[in-house]
Records
---
Amino acid sequence: MASVDVIIQSIRETGRNAAGRPQEACSPALAKAPWEFDGVLQYGPGSSMGDVIPTGSPMQGALPEEYRTAPVDELHERIRAAKATLGDRVVILGHFYQRDEIVQHADFLGDSFQLANAAQTVPNAEAIVFCGVHFMAETADVLAREGQAVILPNLAAGCSMADMADIDSVEACWAQLEALYGTEPDADGRVPIVPVTYMNSSAALKAFCGRHGGIVCTSSNAETVLEWAFERGQRVLFFPDQHLGRNTAKKMGVELSRMPMWNPRKPLGGSSGDELLDAKVVLWHGFCSVHKRFTVEQVEQARAEHPGVRVIVHPECPMPVVDAADESGSTDYIRRAIEAATEPTTFAIGTEINMVNRLAEQHPEHTIFCLDPVVCPCSTMYRIHPGYLAWVLEELVAGRVVNRIEVPESEKADARIALERMLAAKPKPAGV
Ligand code: 13P
Ligand code: SF4
């Protein structure tokens, strides 16, 4: 199967994908080069119109012309040459959602939990080039050895979900919840509330969790982390992804009626004092626009068209979609589930298209397709193109560090506490 970029170019030219079948992309602008959006404050082509980027979000400056005009094969050559020159001085981490054009250069490919671990296993590298999104690079900077530079090849690679919770709104929420619950532990020593932030959040929020007896989770260890939090607290404030919080807590037996939503734009988050007093998990009003595209109708259509299909979705999908699927799990869970299937199987997958198409390519013994028929990559992950990777690497060869992500010292120590708790909370062995 062709890379997502090749598919998008083919759709733009012919209305058909690279296999000749009619297909649509969620935005014609996806066919443009990512540098056409440099210097513009937006998540990028294909992002949901409902995602409003906060003012002050990092913007990428103009990529030097030689990287914009070089043919992609030349860029690949230059990336390989720069890597060879730098040797062990540099390590490239790539998230599963990156373009194939980037993944081929990654030293480690993984989900956000695995990449956070990987960042700690390369103390000899002077630079960690993180091909992922901003919160992942921040996490690597918190966990990296003193003096290591973490580089995000395109500074505009943020995450709209992570931006849905900011430190001021979370502090304001916390003050209201403390006023309601008090701060005294119960007879079992459990505090009234423990903050849990999803990895997809700023370092400032991870530091908040570190300061307040809380923890970070990823989609692969969310259940272990909630168990950890319930051992220490009567309830949890979970931000920013309502869907991961709801899907995980529901799987653990928490009733939906005990998961009120906190909308930071409403007084008391839009819930009543009684609802909050009865809560087990207070869910922040955040979501991922990529995973919100998956629907129950798509699951039903996959079942109608492919009897026996195995439907696996990411837990950032809305609850009815997770309920309609056969299984849900992190990106690495999905990868392992497919790898573990011994019989030729048809899989319908509810996660980002770059990863789904790569799995289809790697497993010709199975039929693997994305539940969403429209090609819609994560708009921010997609902003990392080989041109940016070649640029940051060649700058390193020249002795210059560009696009460095540095978490302020004032946040680092507390964020590390919450992240180390997370790294100790191993994902549960999956039954795949
Ligand atoms: P994983 O933790 O599964 O890698 O997911 C990261 C992410 O951003 C999903 O949208
Ligand atoms: Fe953020 Fe969603 Fe993209 Fe993941 S897929 S980085 S949650 S916008």
Note: The radius of gyration is 21 Å.
---
Amino acid sequence: MTHLTSVNKGFIFKQMKTNKGISASPGVYIGKVYLYQEERLKVPKYQIEKEEIEFEFSRFLVAIEKAKSELEAIKDATKIMNISENEVVMLDSHIMMISDESFINQIKTILSEQLLNIEWIFYEAIGAQIEKLSASQNVYMEERVSDLRDIAKRVLNNLLFRERIKLTGLESECIIVAHDLLPSDAIAMDKKNVKGIVLDVGGKTSHTAIIARSFEIPAVVGLFNITRMVKTGDNIILDGTAGIVILEPDEETTKIYLEKIKRQEEIDLHLKPYVKKEAVTNDGQKIAVSANIEVPQELESVKSHGADGIGLFRSEFLLLQSQLYNSEDKQFEVYKAILQNMEERPVTIRTIDIGGDKIIPNYEEIRERNPLLGWRGIRFCLSNKDMFKKQLRALYRASIFGNLRIMFPMISCEEEVDDALKIIEEVKNELRSRNQEYKDKIPIGIMMEVPSAVLASEFLAKKVDFLSIGTNDLIQYTLAIDRGNEKIAYLYQMYHPALLRLIKMVADVGKKAGIPVTLCGEMGGDPRATIVLLGLGIEGFSMSPASIPIVKKVIRNVEIKEAKEIVDKILQNGSGTEINTIIENWFNERFNGLI
Ligand code: PEP
Ligand code: MG
């Protein structure tokens, strides 16, 4: 298996079962399907040994604790969102029911007597209670029944979580085919055996796609109904670079793909020296090339691909994955470890960007009509101040161990910047009164990913130390395209004249204000876009680690003067599609055969 880092388009097959989707993560793999489907709540029943009683019971206690903290978190959220008192009362009663000691003891007794797995014991015990209460005609009792059902589901879900994330314990190498994968599922999957991801839904910058790229697992998404066309064990070729999936390939096709893999290995070899080279243009301008990561496990990949630093650490993945969310101390330890690991290199940690397609598990119950336009990013943080401060305190405490920069997501107006900066001052005061050490001068930056922030950037730039353009969301919000919706993925244009103008505006504002402007959206890792971004005035890029060598190669082979000329030309064009053709032609002419 190899990872394709260049984009070879136009590969056409006569195969009947060739399916074209969206290329979400490059690379080719030839292997077997593992069809991953969300299981319905099916409660397993099996015998256990006497020695396993303690372990089974401890699983139960963990599931109960988790259910309790989920309920507490929902309760907090309902308070913030001004949801009715009744809901809070109901949640309190659920918490009380879950914590009922006599019920917990009863479970332990039955477990020791029957020697069956805990899911089954719990399911039966709560089922018996439900049955008893259901026999009553009392309205109050009816409500208790629905409460019990709710709790049963929650605890069983937690107990069966091991089932749900089966992707962690796969027996052999495979390509996961699923309708959708939650980002948390994708993060938790067994990276040794998952060799590819194929999804019915999703777009290029959906978070599962980003994670696939970070883990260098080829992926094709947006295939509509691929899950209905395969079963576990089927043969499959996944071409993440071209966005193609071939089912039950014939010998000839397999041969072509084996050659393709070999060719890519040669390209990878050719790009290898660029890992160690500096990103300097032919006319001498140093460009910072950094990495985007989601979890600390990727630090190795950051270094092995030659990143100058971390330009975007999406902290939400870490916080949600390991439930660090509620613990300042645990967060501090993780941030400290990341900073120490990166030594003097800059590490930009973005504060938690919850919402949109990144739903926090504890808040699953909260439904918004338009989550992408809703309670997201800095908006969520500012109305969830305790959580936000916890993260900021942890970050400031960790700051003494390295070169930290803090960045706020989804900024849309000046007031949000002011509020966030005020909270930083409060956090510093708190640390001082606790006698805890921190670095006073940490560069504070904001994401430029909402058009209003870009258009008002001259005001925002006066208040912060750096700007970072998030093209994934900036495209989404400028062009009014849900970035995860495969039906409209064709409209997702990186070279839309509107977007190019917005990027230029931020670059110009940054220069005028004397603060750095970087770009950390997926566009930054596309080697074809490099010349355009350089011409628009971007001096720092951040991308999935695997893209770093190829982007460095492009940077080292162009001049800023040339980039500016190309940009002057394309800015005269009103069609994103035509601009794409101009750039594609230029790229092929310049680098054809080399990358
Ligand atoms: C972006 O929007 O471009 C970005 C980098 O942030 P995220 O992809 O995490 O939303
Ligand atoms: Mg974003």
Note: The longest helix spans residues 53-80.
